[in-house]
Amino acid sequence: MSRAPPSDRAMAEFSIKDRVTVDLVLTQLRKRDFAVLSTVGDGGEPHSAGVNYGVSEPGRDLAIYVMTRRHLQKARNVAANPAVSLVVPLMRRLLWFLPPPTIQLHGRAEILDWTDKGGTDVFRRFWMGRRILEAYRASHRRGETRICFLRITPDPLVSTYMVGYHIWEVRRRMESGAGRVVIPPGPPT
């Protein structure tokens, strides 16, 4: 008795389960430091900004840190409404002219002091983070008092597009490149 070939949907689900894993998503998030952060103001108006970010170390609760100043729109919006979304483009070295794979997540943000140990530890771990810390320290010495971290706690469901795929695999059925992972509760590895 022969079996019918799997449907396109079944193949896409099988492929997603095999390719887009929590480990892959967390590895890609930690390899990058640029994202687009979207917030909503108290009047319901959306706002997006390119930001540098850092991710908590493996073995700690997953958190994404952004350094900013309290008077800027993104921080004012977080103070009024902590719901945020973040899109991380995974830029390619080759084929840079094609749209990049992306990781999209939603979560809740909170405003922390700029001396927060979690945020400063994360920013000390990457080159751009160290430059940002240095720049804000210099601003603080000149009298800037509005410096802060945003700590984003992601929702468990994280969406991806083309993560783990080559462009030629999704050229016929672009939706086949969509994936999702669920970050388990507790500190991820």
Structural commentary:
It contains six helices and seven strands, in the order H-H-E-E-E-H-E-E-H-H-E-H-E. The chain has helices at 8-19, 22-31, 73-80, 117-124, 127-141, 167-170, and strands spanning 34-40, 46-55, 64-69, 83-89, 102-113, 147-161, 178-182. The protein has a six-stranded antiparallel β-barrel, surrounded by four helices. Helix 4 packs across helix 5 (127-141). It is globular and about 55 Å long. Mean pLDDT is 87; it is low at 1-16.
Topology, element by element:
Layout: H1 8-19, H2 22-31, E1 34-40, E2 46-55, E3 64-69, H3 73-80, E4 83-89, E5 102-113, H4 117-124, H5 127-141, E6 147-161, H6 167-170, E7 178-182
Antiparallel strand pairs: 1-2, 1-4, 2-3, 3-6, 4-5, 5-6, 6-7
Helix pairs in contact: 4-5
